[in-house]
Structure formats: C-alpha cells, structure tokens
Amino acid sequence: MRGCGTARNLLIASHTLTVTWSILALYAMISPVYRVRGGPAEATIAFLAYSATYLGHRINIPVLDALAVQLVPVLAASLTIAMFSVYSLLGLAGAREPSTGAEAAALLASLVALASTGPLTGADRVAAAVAHLLTTGTRYQVNAGYIDLGRAVAVPGPAHYLAAGLHGALAWGAAALTLLAIAGSLAAEECRAQSPTEEPELGLGAAEE
Amino acid sequence: MALSLARLLGAPVAVVVVAGYSMYPTLKPGDIVVVEKIASPAEIKPGMIVVWCTGPHSCVIHRVVKVVDERAVVTKGDANPAPDPPVPMSDVEYRAVYVVPRIAYLAPLAAAVAYDIARAARRLAERAAELEAYQRLVVLGFLAYLVALMLTPLVAPKPATPLGNLEALRPRVSLVNASLSKGVVTAYLHAAKTKLLDVEGCVARAAHVSARCAASLEPMGKGLYRLRAAPVPAAEFYKEAYLSGATRLEVDAVIRLSLGKLYARVPVLLHWEPPRARFYPVNCSLVVVNPNPSPLRVNITVIRANLSAGPGYSVKPLPTLRLQASLPPLGKTVEQLRGAQLVSIYISYPLPGGKGKGRIHAGGRCVR
Description:
The structure holds 2 protein chains of 2 kinds. By secondary structure, chain A is α+β, with helices and mostly antiparallel strands. Chain A contains 5 helices and 7 strands, in the order H-E-E-E-E-H-H-H-E-E-E-H. By secondary structure, chain B is an alpha+beta fold. Chain B has helices spanning 2-9, 102-130, 133-155, 234-244, and strands spanning 13-17, 32-37, 49-53, 59-68, 72-76, 87-88, 92-100, 172-181, 184-192, 196-206, 209-221, 224-231, 248-257, 261-269, 276-280, 285-289, 296-308, 314-317, 321-327, 332-336, 342-350, 357-365. The mean pLDDT of chain B is 87. The interface between A and B is large, with 48 and 44 residues.
C-alpha cells in the first residue's frame, strides 16, 4: 500500500534526523567548544566539562559548573531520544508499516530536539563569553605602571563550528522533523484506514504483519 | 502611575505602591500606601512618612528626620544607613495616612490564581483520559522534559562571579621608592606573585626631552628589586632638560616578568641647584662646583685690588678680570686668581628654563 510506504519512509527519515541530531548534540556537549591559549590562561572548554589554569594555577569557573548542571536534562534527553529513535528505526527496518509507538517516539524526539535548541545555543554563548573573559583583562594597572600578561586567544574547537552550524540548522531541522513526523503520522493513519484488519500495536517498534 | 495622575490632577488623596526595601520593615515592597496632600509646610514634622518627588514619575517615600528652617526637610529610609540630602519643602507633596499590607491583597489574588490553575488541571486530567496511550506518552514526556529544563537552574550552583577570583592570582608590582642622585634614577620595586627578570628597554623623559637610558636590575631579596637607570648620553639629556626648565623626570622601563611584561613608570623630581663657589685664600684660588648632572657655563667676574702699606692701608684697584668657565656635569673648575691681594668674585649662571640669570658671590684676601 502506497500510504503505508510513505508513512514508513517519513518516519525513517524523521528518526534518522533525530539520531543525527542526538549524536551531534552529544558531541557538542562533550567535546571542546573553545580552547584558550597564550597569555595567562590555558583552558579547554566543553559544555559539560572544562579544564582551566590561570598563571599556572588550576581554577574553577563557577559559571561553567552551573552550565554543566543545567545541561544535564539536555544530555539525558539526547541519550534517550537517540535510544528511542534507534530502537524505532530497527523496528521500522523490518516492517512494512509503522507502529503508533514509532510515531510517538518521532514526535517526542522532534519536540525535544526543538526545545533543546535554545539551551544548547545559550550554552554556546556562555562558553563564548567565558572564553572571551579569559582572553581579556590581561593588561592591567599596578602601582609601578602596568602589567601586560601577553595576548591570549580563544580558538573555537571543532564542536563550536559544528554547534554553530548545528544550532542554526537544527532549529530548522528540528522544525522539519516535527513536520515530517506529523506528516508521517497522518500518512500512517491513512495507511491504517486503508487496511482496517491490521491492528497497530502500542510499542516502539513496528507492527508485525 | 496612580500617584503621577493624582499629582497631575492635584488630587487630595492618592495611592503609592512601595517598590524598594529602603523603608523596611515599616513598608515592604508591594505594600499600598494611601497618601494625602500636605496643605501647608508647617504640617511636616519629624517622624512623619512623606512622599517627595524629583520629577514627574520619580518619587520617594521616606521618613522625615529633621525640618531645616521650614525651608527644607531631611528624610531617611528606615533601613538606610544615612539620611537623604535635604529636600526643598516645595518638593514634599504627600504624607502617608494608611498602609495596606501586601498580604492583604496578594493572598486573595494568589488564592484566585491557584483556584484557576487547579480547575485547569482538572480539565486537563479529564481530557488526558480521552487521549490514546501514545499521545499521553508524547504529552507527558515532553512536559517532563520542559519541567526538568525549568527546574535545573534552581539546583545549579549560583556563580557569584563568572570566573571566580582571578584577581587574587594576578602578579602585582609596586614602586616602593624612587630617587635621583648624580643623574642616576634608583627605584625600588616590590613584586608579588611574579619575578622581575631583566630590563628590555628604557626611556628617560623630562618635559619634551627624551633619551634612551641604560638600566640594570638587581634582586634584593624578599621580592624587592633595585632598578637603576641613567639617560644616555646623560650630559646631553640633562643639558636639554636644564634648558627646558623641566622639574620632573620619568623613566619608562620595560621589565620582563616570569610571565608577561611590566611597563614601569618611575617618576622623580628634578631639583636644579645653583653652582657653589669657594675661595681658597692660601693659594688664592676659586673652586666652582656644579652639583647638577647637566653641564653649566658660568661667567666669572673678579674685581681685584692690592693693599699698599703706609699710614694705614690704602686700596689700589686692579683691572677687573672676566672669565668664562664650562663646568662639567657634577664637576668643578679651579681658577687661579694670583696677582691681587683682595678679590671679590661674582659668578653668574643661567637659571633653569632660560628664566634669566642667577648670581653667587665669593671672595676674600689672598695669603702670600
């Protein structure tokens, strides 16, 4: 049946995108977004962890500690939707028509991806602000004149480039995901209407024929 | 807003909503104060809570602590440590007559909101029962995620400063003392959390005159360092500085630290002293000393005379000697003045900055 095939393909596309989103979001959270080099500071900043020294002393950056805690739900959500989507994809791969569980997972995943875009973009800006703060204030007045501790530079890490592109694309991608999932859901309903004898099951995988 | 409108209309009564903690605990933020217009300044007494305004929309509600000559009042917030500056009597417009505590209207408002939320929740629960299981999963899963996103900022640590106290780790260098002696600037620098390694460059400046300087740095222990710097060429620099009348000398030195550089500025005062002259009767000589690090050209006028014996002494003038001498920096010149028994010496020298000429005097009787 054409409707069922379309629904299945849309849901596969939707889940593939959410899995990709999850992997990229996890990568953006655990890999360095900024590296600060030169001058008094040496720092490697990721959203969930960081390592920083200032004038040879290991330092705590309270704002990054707070950021890591605030991103725990996003981390948990990324892992969860990655697992749900992979499980749904596995189910969809062996079936001709999608289950309601797969639709629910697609819709939930896309909504979570949409909602997570804000915190991730915010986290990127916080990390950028911290990196900027570490590179500034290296020249300051003292009683005998002024001290220049050297020029520090913040080099964006690969995760930043990924995240910068990811976040812009993800806002749209996640919206597209939602639309895909809804379209998939409608197509699945159409599919079920055309084959009333087949009862969809409430699971995350696909309904077996 | 209500007060602004009342003031505009000249209403005898108005209401004010308290916005800050300056009158705490008498007035709390959110309390509503009913105020009435003050008819005459004589009504204002210490202890009264009044409203005074500095603009159409900026008013302050504070307690009167003092009335100054019936022209101004001094007010103070109950929780403020210091009183406000005196306010002209004409700016004091209203006095508080009644306070409606915030609890009186916030509690019913909160109860009404809570009732509405409870009603909405009940309706949602009724609707939720009609949803399919997978729809419930989506709704509840997404709601749980949103709640988690909202709650995590509450459990996350609240940073007092974004980067912690980096200030405490920074090196500090202070200038303990600086002096100028014999054309050499000596400065003592105290370094904390760093070491001063060497001097990379040095420039001396006095008014518009500047020159490179030779500098050295010696560690004195316990974070103390001695910086010595002298302009190169010193005579030329100080000559120009003397002619320009500079009274301040600055040494700018770039000192390499264990991390980074110190751009040190050492200011010292330039004291130009007049030359000193001393006459030595035994060998009839004049010594003129230049105490300054700049060379000095002086004109020496020697009025000479001999004494002739007879019934009493008589003075026989001799031709006046006019000499010119160039005194080296911090050096001296010796002039032999033999050939006369009595000498009176006048030495004129240019004042710093070309401001005329100074004169010193010496003289005496030569001993043969």
